[in-house]
Amino acid sequence: MTVVFDLDDTLYAEMEFVRSAYRAIARRYGLHLLDPMMRASSPREAFDSTGLPIADQLKVYREHFPDIRLPWLSLYTLSMLRNRGHRLGLVTDGRSVTQRNKIRALGLERFIDPELIFISEEVGSDKLSGQAFGRIMALCGENDKYVYVGDNPHKDFVAGNRLGWLTVCLLDGAFGENLFDQSLGGLPIENLPRKIICGLTELLDFDGFAKS
Ligand SMILES: [Mg+2]
């Protein structure tokens, strides 16, 4: 089985990255900026609180090497899946430099096959296009079984559903502060995950995950 993960708010809480960026901005432009940023209710509000040009803050936000850790339950799940012989991949939307820094900071290269890491800026199109998913199938073979685990029903499951993958949505319970709306009501059927989980370790109990 090939199990492919989204990155932000699936393998770690994206708010941890956001707070890391606030610390990097404060180190660069003044430590007094940190407290108001930490108390802001959104990144936008945090950037406004500093009075600095948005472009300067975004540059640090996107390019700093983040101080983030892989949560224990993610580490456990990834290593268990690897030990059981499954191939692991990553499909994430974002800038190459930002997502590559996160991957390195989280130590994901230990678990995830480098040729199965797809970042939208490098691919040239986002998840909805399905390009990264198609390339994974070309690499791993039409006869393999595929799973995609994500958190955002607006874009994470459309391509996988179309290609016959098992799509799995990790609900907010996992980290408690998801950056995006996860409500499934009112979404078209092609957006909906086939399964919903509240913690990554639930993957280990799925049929077919016991052994590859
Ligand atoms: Mg996500």
TrEMBL record:
GO terms for biological process: small molecule metabolic process. One of its GO terms (molecular function) is phosphatase activity. Keywords: Hydrolase, Magnesium, Metal-binding. InterPro entries: HAD-like_hydrolase, HAD-like_sf, HAD-SF_hydro_IA, HAD_2, HAD_sf. Pfam families: HAD_2. Its cofactor is Mg(2+). This is HAD family hydrolase.
